[in-house]
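Figure S4 source data
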Amino acid sequence: MNRRVVALHALTTVLIATGLAGTAKAATAAAVAAPDGFASVAALGLPGTTGGVAGPTVTVDTTDELLTAIDTVGPMTIQVSGTIAITSKQGVRPNKTIVGLGSSAVITGGGFDFYRSSNVIVRNLTFTNAEDDAVNVGQQSHHIWIDHNTFVRPVDGSIDIVRGADYVTVSWNHFAGTDKSMLIGHSDGAASTDIGHLKASIHHNFFDGSRQRHPRVRFGEPVHVYNNYFRGNELYGVASTENAGVLVEGNYFATVPFPCHSTSGYADSGPGRLVQRANVFVGSGPCEAGGAVVEPRTFYAYTLDAAASVPGLVTGGAGAGRP
């Protein structure tokens, strides 16, 4: 089950955010759970990912308000109300929690970009029709938690974790018919920036008719892919390439012709290492595995759900507007 310790960002007064298009918004309480996986690990001067805790809470419902809030220096919890249209990929400064209110908060047309940013939570949002990536975690960004979101029709990737990014958790998201769901490692030529980085936990996500990259990994180790529900993925599930180290554990694959690529490489990328254990395969091909991988338990503790229970858990809990 979703084992989380819930912390309430309770407010007793109306907070005014300087510069938010001159509009004061009443901030309502937002419930945001504590992270797990790599986003919870104390490293690089942070105790884990705390987002905007200790800062003000503001509610935004216009493009200008949102863009001003994510560009504000210092901790802040940004509550997104309704549908907000943005373009391209907009930069997010460190120490932010961006959380949708209710079940209908939508970011449409664009996405979020992390460039040397850190300590950010993105939660309970639906991303639609992003003209590039919906979420790009790059350029040494670290401690990013992407949780309980829904991704629909981005032109490029739903989530990219690239260029030396580290300590990222992607949990309880719904990838609804996306094409390039998740890339970890920018290119085959990025060894100098990516080796020793790209540590990521990918768990309890619903890869629902999405085609590929769940994730596609270059160089990163360990990348821990566990308790996800893969359903009807046309091209493949997980690809470990360019000597990446990926643990695929406790997942449920249904009608996935190629659940895993690794020792044969993929496309133009050379082979990677992949360990698979405790997975369920229904109407699916074999998982290509080989080599040894650093155990995630050397970084954090976790409890694995039985793979047979994953479809029920994930369809009941993944995506925006879900508990």
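Figure S5 source data
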Amino acid sequence: MAKPQPSWALGVPGPDTPASPRTMRTLRKIQSHQVLSTSSALIAQTQASRQDGSNEADPGSAATPGAATRARAHRRARSNSDAASREAAAATPPTTQRRPARKTGSGIGVKRSLLENFLRDGPQSSNPNEGLGELKYLVLSSRVDADGDGMSPYRIYLWLVLLDIPPMPTDDYLAFIHRGRSPAYAKIRNDTFRTLATDPLFKRRVTEASLIRLLNAVAWKLHDSRPKPRSRPTSSRRREMELLVNAPPRIAEESPFGGELAKVTNTTTSDSAMYVQGMNVLCAPFLYAARSEVEAFALFHYFVTRECPGYIRGAMDGVHKGLRLVDRCLEIVEPKLAAYLFSKGMHAELYAFPSVLTLCACTPPLPEVLHLWDFLFAYGPHLNILCIVAQLIRMRDLIFESPSPNKILRSFPPLDAKEIIALTVLLVRKIPGDLYAEMISHAK
């Protein structure tokens, strides 16, 4: 049976080697190419340990954990709000009937999964890299416990841990709300009412007002992060700069103002956008899974600025790179299907743009999207490229039988996260290392 390799064997810097969080995040993404290739043995090993450890679950532990940047042991004191009821219960003689255990949730009377126990109690190892690797294996080998609507009491904390997002003060979010309408407010209002309009689960839980508030707050924060233009030069200085602009290139290069003029031009030019169409759909699962708008704001802002900033630039160059990667990966893992689609003029840019931009959040049902995102946040959002390829492979027979594949590819069939993840893990083995490196960096 294959065993997970230690962090030093996979190229992760040791305790004496300083590394930035972004460097460590990139190294962990590269490791996923090797780790996922041995996933079958890891899943079997984890399932065996799950059977042994399920009988040791403590049914009387505290409630849901708080968000943490790293999984660690954390116990919360019991509230005294029910002290009177507990004293009354102690004075009441016991009855012969027993209250049946709840079937949903993770409170008293319900056995918790290994994944939930891990988030509550933390890893056994003191090495954070080993603990994070163990958490990823649990996400891959066992689904997050959720009800029929896809709601889980600990999923949002799992995402915060996997993405290493620290707690955010509520006042910081409220400060953006109180600033009113951002410059992108009109664009936001033009899209929010269409967000997952046909999904009753989303409409029942998330209001359009909360979606507008969150996107408007993110637009303000992106606006504040833009480089500020320099102060306006004086009249004499302005005349000198005008002479430099109209002067021949040789004179401008020799002038001491040439470099400063270039700096002014560069700082006032920015191609980053505060809002692009599609950000509303990408934001929707965060709001649906979170317990508060502040949690959703912290997750969504981190995601669009650190994981996929290329997706929200004005030109959306990251999305277009991802579309080309879909064609290249499909050509490697399923050459016949790729050749058939190319012969019909069907490239990924014609049918996969929403799936790349929103990490498949545009394809229902929403509970399956959340399970797919558990996997993507654990091993890297770049694997969404292979998840799209996996969906195409599952549609292969329908595509071959249809003389016009564009009718089939207008809307993908409902997501089946378990099958797509299993097929994606198999596809990882067929992707060359250089192409996999392009997948990691395409959204930056």
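The chain is about 60% helix and 0% strand. The two ends are 37 Å apart (CA to CA).
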